[in-house]
Every structure is written in C-alpha cells, then in structure tokens.
Amino acid sequence: MTSDKRMKAMEEKRDRILQSAIQLFAENSYEQTTVAQVAKKAGVSFGTVFTYFENKEELYFQSVNEPLEHLVKKFLQFDTKTDDVLNEISRMIKDHLILFSQQKKYLQLIVKVNGTHEQFPEVFQLVYERTQELIRQISKLIENGQRRGELVEGESEYIATAYISLLFGLELSYIDELGEDLINTYTKIAKRLFGPK
Hints:
This protein has nine helices and no strands. By secondary structure, the protein is an all-alpha fold. It is elongated, with a radius of gyration of 19 Å.
C-alpha cells in the first residue's frame, strides 16, 4: 500500500471511530459509553482507538470539537450586511433547519454537553463560545434589518438567542429529518421571531 493510500485509510478509520463515538455518546452518555463499544461500532480493535485518541476523554472532546468547527462555519454562511435582510433571514433559517435536520445525532450530543456543563467544563466552554459567536453574527443581521427599517426595533441579542433556542427545540421535537414542507412551515414561523415589518 502506498503512503497516500495508507494515510487515506488511516483518516477513514479515524473518522469511523469519531462518528461511532458521536452516535454512542449522543444515544447514551459519557459514562455509559465505553471505548470497547466505540471500537465495535467502528469495526476496529480496542487498541486501534488509542492509535488516534489518547483516552476516552480526548475521544469525547474531539467528538464535540471537530464537528462543531465544521458546523459553525456552515451556520455562519449568511450576509450580515445584505441589502435584502428579510430574504437573507429566510434563506438563513431554511439553511439552518436543513443543517439541524442533517446533524441530528451530533446535536443530541450538544444538548447532552449543555446538560453536563459542570462535569465537562472545557467541552461546554467550546460549545458556549461557538454559540455566542453565532448569536453575535445573527445579531448583526438583525441590527442591519432594524437600521434599514425592515425589522421592528428590539434587543437583537435576545432575538438571536430565542432563534437558536427554537432550532434546538425543533431538533428535540422531531425523531426523523424534517421534510421540505415542515422546513418551509418552520422557516415562516421562525422568521416572525425577527420582527419583520
């Protein structure tokens, strides 16, 4: 096997381990999930997990951290300085609902992280900081809309926080992915939070 193929195989194996850990940590808990279970689900040996992750704590940390960076980048793909705030808000909401629908297991893990913030303060801090970054950017979009007269005046940070809470509430309310009809319905409902005129 060439060096490039070996590296690719190692990356794929690491990703299988990480995806298996995300699913198990989300479905169970940190305490109830063992490295042996992760290894079995990933189709690797127990020792192979430790080739990629120093211990269970690092595996948990990376299960939250690595997808979070990718997800936040996708969540921040909206234009806070747009000339058409209402359409940008609609597009953003729809994109966010689709992302939430596609990342159900990972978001279940994030909910568990929020519930165990005292046990895992570093992991919680990661999630908190990224959520605050998202709230700040959404607030900028809201403030732009308020300046332009497209949105009613209000506390942009509270509105952005309520919006994020709505997304997590919807994630917890639906077992399956949201279909197109529900995404369109909830896009209209969520848009009302922003106070369109």
